[in-house]
Design brief:
Blueprint lengths: L4 E2 L13 E4 L4 H15 L9 E2 L6 E7 L10 E3 L4 E7 L2 E6 L7 E8 L5 E8 L5 H10 L14 E5 L4 E6 L10 E7 L2 E9 L11 H14 L10 H18 L13 H12 L3 H28 L7 H15 L8
Parallel strand pairs: 1-3
Antiparallel strand pairs: 2-13, 4-5, 4-10, 6-7, 7-8, 8-9, 10-11, 11-12, 12-13
Helix pairs in contact: 3-6, 5-6, 6-7
């Protein structure tokens, strides 16, 4: 199985703003989900979806999990063959079927191709006498049958050995920064919510100082509306990436690593100069962007020093790096390096 395994102890002391558990706090599955959430939160990945930690509880093993950071090409999960059979039903569909019923049913994960965005993932609980084909037909005939919202983020499915029971973590949609995680367990023939892990607000800018918010608004104005971009939606995708970056800047600044393919600040400035040439309003926007970078860095440095006072590092230099990386994240000018 190819998912990346991360030790939980290596990052134990990093976070100052820990994830919060609501629900059945005394349940071992919720405790494990909280540990996994802390590992994801404390890691340097720009999302909470990757890397995936190995469960610390030896009674719990991963049955199905995402198998890489970028799964937009499809075939984005691996399954433990001891627990799930992998069956191809159509060229664009893969079905993972729990081999032996537990808790009154069998869990089924349906992965359906969805073009360049990746695959859609749905989960159902088949009744003991129901075949996989019958369960999938029921899913298609009754919208809402899936236990999780059909989306581009696969759930994490686990097996508890002693109880011989399956359970899962629904990690929400990957385009929503710091989305809460929901632990779901088979109960009465359905998958029911047991607890949730919350990581903070998805609107990171709302937490950041006013100069940072103002700089972000100007950068967004320069990015433009992104109208008539067809199905690729380049501007919308860039805004999703930027929102993730600001959410990290506010709640987990160690994860603002930046896009390794982003253009240099010099290239971005040259592109903005060309974009604004002979246009008074655009020139004002670019002038304000340059003027706000230093105040935004100072304000962000003060914010980091206050909120993450126990964290090793230099808030001023961290703030400089974050503002630089975020400024570069908004744009990709033709022919730039």
């Amino acid at each position: 199985m190819r998912w990346w395994l991360l030790t939980l102890t290596a990052l134990a002391a990093r976070a100052e703003a820990a994830p919060v558990l609501s629900g059945s706090a005394g349940d071992a599955r919720c405790a494990e989900a909280l540990d996994l959430g802390r590992a994801a939160f404390n890691a340097t990945g720009d999302t909470l979806l990757w890397p995936i930690a190995k469960p610390a509880n030896p009674d719990i093993r991963i049955a199905i999990a995402q198998n890489g950071l970028d799964i937009s090409a499809g075939h984005g999960v691996d399954a433990d063959p001891a627990l799930f059979d992998t069956v191809s039903r159509e060229p664009t569909k893969i079905v993972f079927v729990q081999r032996r019923a537990t808790g009154g049913g069998r869990m089924i994960l349906v992965e359906t191709g969805y073009g360049w965005r990746g695959d859609f993932y749905e989960v159902l609980l088949a009744e003991p006498a129901e075949t996989a084909e019958q369960a999938i037909t029921r899913l298609r005939q009754s919208p809402g049958t899936s236990a999780i919202d059909a989306g581009l983020t696969p759930p994490l499915i686990f097996h508890s050995r002693r109880a011989n029971a399956m359970w899962l973590i629904d990690r929400g949609q990957r385009f929503e920064p710091l989305h809460e995680w929901t632990v779901m367990v088979p109960t009465g023939g359905k998958l029911a919510r047991l607890c949730q892990i919350r990581f903070g607000t998805s609107d990171g800018l709302a937490l950041l100082p006013r100069p940072v918010r103002r700089l972000a608004a100007l950068l967004d104005e320069a990015l433009g509306p992104g109208a008539d971009e067809g199905t690729l939606q380049q501007t919308a995708r860039r805004r999703i990436m930027v929102a993730q970056g600001w959410a990290n800047a506010a709640s987990r600044p160690w994860a603002v690593t930046g896009n390794p393919y982003a253009q240099s600040v010099a290239t971005i400035d040259q592109g903005l100069a060309s974009w604004s040439r002979h246009n008074i309003k655009r020139t004002q926007v670019v002038t304000s962007i340059h003027a706000l970078r230093r105040p935004a860095e100072r304000a962000l440095g003060d914010y980091l020093a206050r909120r993450f006072s126990g964290r090793a590092g230099a808030p001023r230099s961290d703030a400089h790096a974050i503002i630089e990386r975020m400024s570069r994240s908004y744009f990709a000018f033709p022919g730039g390096g």
